């Protein structure tokens, strides 16, 4: 079937918007080693761009070297984020607090991560992980989640030592944060010998989809290449993969023969928008359109 110029334009616009959006929102995988085992974290910059950037900056600067998990309250949260070396913490404190990200009022699920704070624009380096789905967490401006611990690794979080409980201000026997800021692990290790620690964290730059992990709260692929390949192999999946665009994408796909649409989308897949951006993807798409029309005329 010959594809009209109007439908070609509509398809081009839909794919250009879709590829640009995926490139901007690409999640990042962080791998941490703890005293209870490895823990993977999926960071979502589209949820909280400022908070996600700070967390990745902390990881890349090796901030999470021997960082104590100092507030472990079963059924509530795990809190951490004061450096082992007081000088390192002082340097980060001098950078100032973060502006709050727009709160998306996203329900906090088990494993979700956000910053601990004391008021508007108070985020710094302290972070929490939710033990369970929570109606109380995530309600404050500074508590917008920026990612989550991968579901398969939550048993590691469940195993963190909780014997000290909450901070003393909340009736527990946990470390004093003021002394921890001043003395670092020189205060923690002799006084709280059973604490667990994050030993190190590294960013796994997602050069391809093999580096990405499908999380417990995601029901579709998050990588650009995997989604484009899915469409190329099965044009009928275009609406499912790109349901945000709406019914237009489905009706467009129906007007293309399976072979022609696969040819079209495979040519676009040849350029990863994460690497080359939406412009390169659009060029590849247009080349596919030209070839598709040439192929049609060759058959007439």
Describe this structure in words.
- This protein is of the alpha+beta class and 300 residues long.
- Helices cover 40% and strands 14% of the residues.
- It is built from eleven helices and nine strands.
- Helix 1 runs antiparallel to helix 11, helix 7 runs antiparallel to helix 10 (258-269) and helix 10 packs antiparallel against helix 11 (273-299).
- The termini are close together.
- Residues 12-23, 207-211, 219-233 and 237-276 have low confidence and may be disordered.
The number of helical segments is 11
Structural class: alpha+beta
Q: Please bin the fraction of helical residues.
A: 40-55%
Radius of gyration equals 24 Å
Order of helices and strands: HEEHEEEHEEEHHHEHHHHH
Oligomer: single chain
